[in-house]
Amino acid sequence: MSQVDGSYDCVTKSPMGDQKSVFTVTSDGGSFTGQNAGAMGSLDVENGKVDGNKLSWTMNMKVPMPMTLECEATIDGDALTGTIKAGAFGSMAMTGTRQG
Fold it and tell me: Where are the domains of the chain?
């Protein structure tokens, strides 16, 4: 199991307020799969890449409007810090803590 694998309780600072979600990471060498599940549904990780303790991925949002989110995060111990780029809305900070 890689140091990045796990489920993280996350908060994303969005224009609509703090969005809580559970972000799961299952790595396989230099790539990973997973999803970010929150109140507005679950988004699958696409193009997930792992470089040491750094993750990058995209997610295709459907609501409130179709948009590709460009995401990156760094895992430091059990802490996750990252950003989600949401087109015209700019970058949103994402923080999380590994469960269990």
Answer: 1-55+72-77
